[in-house]
C-alpha cells in the first residue's frame, strides 16, 4: 500500500496559512466566563480519538429527559465522555451507544414503558415535521419513531458536542475560498465539522457566514444559536422541504460570503447550491453518501459534482480514445470544487472534484489526498496515485 503513495504528486498546491493556527476559545453566551469551558461537568477531552480536542457536550441537560435510573447509571458510566446516543424503544431494554463501538450496552434489564416514553417526550417538547426536536441552548438532538397512529414508540437521544480541532484537517483548503462538499456515513462527525468551520470562518477569517440550519443541528435548539458557531449567523428552517428556499433567501437578503448547509438531499437543494455558487458565494455542505462514486451515480445529487450525461462519439473519435461510441461525460463545472470523503473521524480522502469525476468516468483512478492524524495526533497529508472508490 505504501508503494501507492506518491509524495511528489501535488494534487493541490498547498497555500501557506494566512491566519494564525491557535484556536480562540468558544464564546459562551449563557452564564459566566468566556473561556472554552465554564463548567467542568460540561467539558472534556474527546475520548474517541485521544487527540486532545476540547469538547463541550452539555451532557447533564440531555440526561435530564431520561428516567432517573438511566440518568444515574450514565452519570456513573466511565465512558460517558464517549456517549453517542441513548435509544429508548417501547417494550425493549434501554440501550446506550458509544463512539468507536459497533454495538450497544443495555442500561437495565427492565423494558421501557409507555409512561417513561411519554415523560421523556414531555420533557423534550414539540417535534418538528422531520420528527426531530432539541434541547434549548444545547446541541443535542432527539428523534422520534412513531406508530401508524402517530404515537411515539421510540426515541433516539443523540449527544451533540462542540469540538475544537477538527478544522485542522481542512484549514489549508479554506484559504482557497472555494466550496467544499463533505460525504460520510451517519455518526462520522460531518455536522461537528460544519459547526467548527462556521466558527473559524466567521471569527478567524472574518467572513460573513450564514448557516441554513434545517433541524437546528448545527446551531442548537432555541432562538439564540449555540456559542459553538462563533459569530456566524443562523437561519432556521420551518420545514425540511423548505431548505432550498431558505438557502436562496439567505443569499438574497443577508449578503453572506459563506453559506453552510447540512444534509443536501433533494434536486431542489442541489439546484439551489448551484445558484448560490454561481453568485460567487462559498458553500460548505454535506450530502448523503460515503464515496464520490455514490454522488456520480445518484441522479438527484449528481449536479453537485457537475452532472453526468451520455455522449455519442464519432467512429474516428471512438477509435482514437479506444472506447465505445457511447460514453459518460461531466456536463458542467462542479458546484463544489473540493469534495471530502470522511472515512473516519480522523481519516479523510480529499478530491479535486472536476479532475476526479473526469477520471472516474473514463475508467481511470484519480489522484487524491489522504488526510489523517499520526501517532502524535498531528495532521498528515499524503498524495496517493491510486483510488478505487472503496479504499486506498
From TrEMBL:
The keyword Repeat does not apply. Residues 176-333 form the AAA+ ATPase domain. Keywords: ATP-binding, Nucleotide-binding. Pfam families: Spore_III_AA. It comes from the Eukaryota. InterPro entries: AAA+_ATPase (IPR003593), P-loop_NTPase (IPR027417), Spore_III_AA_AAA+_ATPase (IPR045735). GO terms for molecular function: ATP binding. This is AAA+ ATPase domain-containing protein. The lineage of its organism: Eukaryota, Viridiplantae, Streptophyta, Embryophyta, Tracheophyta.
